[in-house]
Amino acid sequence: MSFNTEDGPGVHTDVPQQTTGFTFNHTMVRIVDPEASLAFYTKVFGMRLLRKVDMPEGEFTLYFLACTGNDDVPDDKDARAKYVNGREGVLELTHNWGTEKDPDAKYHNGNDKPQGYGHICFTVPDLQAACAWMDENGVAFKKRPEDGRMSHIAFVLDPDGYWIELVGRS
Fold it and tell me: Which reaction does it catalyse (predicted)?
């Protein structure tokens, strides 16, 4: 017997046929400084910038990143767009032009009052090694594994103060 779903309030146990093929593709967060955020996610988390879309009429740029592993990412722009739109685990960073020059520019991290958005999460092969890597790169911690009762997770902060959970694979 294969696992289908756990039970919870409002859970529909039957998956509607109309949703066949749906894939959770990405989540978006707004960033103040694209240089800082792109450096952070590409170096500290090993993500690759897969697609950059400038929207001059709206004065913003979209950056799509993912951990690609050994994927053969297409060079062709159209094929790469299909690759990005068809995969899971994409992070979209949205930069509204000019925020990097505004000393007061800041986005709500979702965890301060009023709470809303919470965090993104990376599964890592070795939590202690990942935390050491974060320390080597000067990443700010919100919670280290040894803090509190949940020793199997850590939380770090990205350049905009968004929380990133680290969960060990083991």
Answer: (R)-S-lactoylglutathione = methylglyoxal + glutathione
For residue 90, which of 120, 61, 65 has the smallest C-alpha distance? 65
Catalytic positions, written as ranges: 165
Tell me the pTM.
Answer: 0.92
Q: How far apart are the first and last CA of the chain?
A: 25
* Residue pLDDT, tens place only, 36-93: 999 999 999 999 999 999 999 999 999 999 999 999 999 999 999 999 999 999 999 9
Q: What is the bridge-based pairing of β-strands 141-143 and 153-157?
A: antiparallel
The sheet with strand 26-31 has its strands ordered as 26-31, 90-96, 60-66, 48-55
DSSP letter assigned to residue 128: H
Q: Among all chains, which residue has been given the structure tokens 């792109």?
A: 38
